[in-house]
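Hi R.,

Here's the chain you asked about this morning:
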Amino acid sequence: MNEQRLQWNDLEVVRAIAEAGSLSGAGRRLGLSHATVFRRLNAMERRLGVRLFERARTGYTPTAAGEELAAAGGRVEEQVLAAELRVIGRDLRLSGTIRVTTTDTLLVGLFSSIFRAFRRAHPEILLEVAVSNQLFNLSQRDADVALRPTAAPPEYLLGRRGGTIAQAVYLSNNGDSGGEDWVGPDRHLGYPALEAWMAANGADTRCRYRVDTMLGMLAAARDGLGRAVLPCYLADPEPSLIRVGDPIPELATDLWLLTHPDLRRVGRIRAFISFVAEALKARQEILSGQAVVP
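And here is the predicted structure, written out as C-alpha cells:
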C-alpha cells in the first residue's frame, strides 16, 4: 500500500509534463534531466498500474488519470503557496517576541532607554532581554539578536555596526578618589585588552580592588576605591565621576547588532535592528566620548 502512495514531487512531475507536453520541457521547468523525468514517470505508472500519458511524435498527452493527477498537483501547489504566504505574512507583521542579549553595562547605560522607545513605537512586539557578558549561541536560538562590543563578530552571523565605544580613565570627584589606587577587572570578567593596558601602564601593580562587572567597577570608582577605565557612555553622565584625560584609542571597541541569517527577513527583527541602529546614530558623540551628558 505504501509503495503506491504519491508524493508531492510526483504530482509536480505529472503537472509539469501535462503543461509542457514533453519530457524535455518538463525537465526544464523542474530543473531535471530528460532521463530523470522519463524514469520518474515510468516508475509512477508502474506503481499505480495506470498509464498517465499517451506518447506520440507530437508529444505527451495526459490520459484521464494524468489529467486528474495534474489538477491535484495544481491544487496542492496553491495550498502550499497560500500557507507560505500566511507564514511569511505572520512574520512580516510587527508583532511577536524578540529575545535580545546584551551586557549589563550596555543595558543600563545605553539600551534600556532605546528599548523603552522601541516598545512605545511597536507595542505589539514583546522584548525579552537576557543579560550576559557571554555571546549567546544564536544558531540554537538562545537569542534572536545580540548587541555586543566586539572587534571580531562571528562570521556565521549577520551584523550591523552600531558605532565605536570609547573608554577613558575616571575617578571620584567627592574628595576621596582613592589616591593612586586603581580598580581593575576580575579574571572572571574576561577583559584581556584592559588587563594588557593596565599592565603596560603600570596600573596593575597599584590595583587594590578587582570586580567581575563593569557596573561594579563604576560603583567602586564612584565610591573612591580608585581610578577605573570605564565606557564613556556609562561614566560621563555619572555626576560623581570625572574623566582623566582623553579616551584611550587602543581600548576603543566596535558595537555590533548581530542576528542569525535565517532571521534576516523576519519583520519584527528587521524593525528592531533598524530602530536600534537609528537610535545609536543619534548617540554617536556619547558613544565616542565626544559629548558629556549632563
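One quick note: The mean pLDDT is 87.

Cheers,
M.
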